[in-house]
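Data follows
____________
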Amino acid sequence: MSVTGVVTVQVPGFVDHHTHLLKDSAAVGWPWQGGSVREFHQQVLRDKSTPMDVAEPGSPAPLDELAARLRRGLAKAAGAGLVEITEMGMRQWWYLDALARLARRGSLPVRVRVYLASGLAEQASLADLDARRADASPWVRLEGVKFYADGWLVPRTCALCRDFADEDQAGLLFQDAPALARRIEPFAARGWRIATHAIGDRGIQTVLDAYELAWGNDARAISAAMPRIEHGSIQSAETAARIAALGVSVCIQPSFALSDARHVRAALGQDRLTMAYPWTMLAAAGVRPLLGTDYPIEVIQPLVGLARLVKGRSDRAGFGTDDTAPEQSRLSRDLAFSLMSDESAGTTLLSADPRVVPDDDLDQIEVHGTDPAPF
């Protein structure tokens, strides 16, 4: 079966539930530039803060130029086949101002959901935040607040229940469950969606404890609010069952298991290998994951992500590696496609239907266009 050419197939539009596309498009540097991520995380902990509380520099350009940069970034996402992105952790209000300026001029290349960084959200009054949330355009939604619990795997800063296999330390926990819950409560009470970064098993358990405290140990209230864990990379079957019982969503990244393949064994040791990126187990436990790329940390192309999630690798020119993701990090074709697409968000036009082509052809499909739907 040919997957390239003039034939066009319409499928439910691809969505990305966790990106930093706007930040990347605006050409704003990362907070750790000039040092390592590990040093940045250690300094944040010494400051009794979290990475989501560290502000970006002020506006790096006039608003019209920023709007033009954001439009180019959104067009790049559309060119990859996306109809919706979620910007996860917006640190300055000028992003929304630039998006509003674009929206007043007409439709956007993709529609945009925004989660505020916790530090920015807590600087404003709750009434002002609600007013900004209500002042939505057909193309932009201010949806939630993002918090941070622990660090990352590769720099050995995610919070583990046991020491790293290659270091005599168990990572960094930026705040305990009661402190995190106190910060979440005012936003949860007003109906804001809550997302919290947690990669290590101790970090994930801390977030679940905080969610129980924030919603008064009411599992039905937690499930109704649909709070998220961002990444959820290292966890046990018991933790997955708890996530499912509480109705918490986990936003996973199709490329992480492949990108980190050379680090996992050294970091975790042989006996914890199956705890890393256990997406098959998570789905079997009854958790319905969300899929996000974490772009620009990983590639934004959804068809590459689909191939990596289904067959453990991508053979597309420019996106192949020598590594293959383990079986535990793979999902069935039907589930993977359903998680990265949403018919209500619009449609994507392709040279072939990824639901029916052979696995090896998934990342060879061409994007012919998109038709995003306003909110």
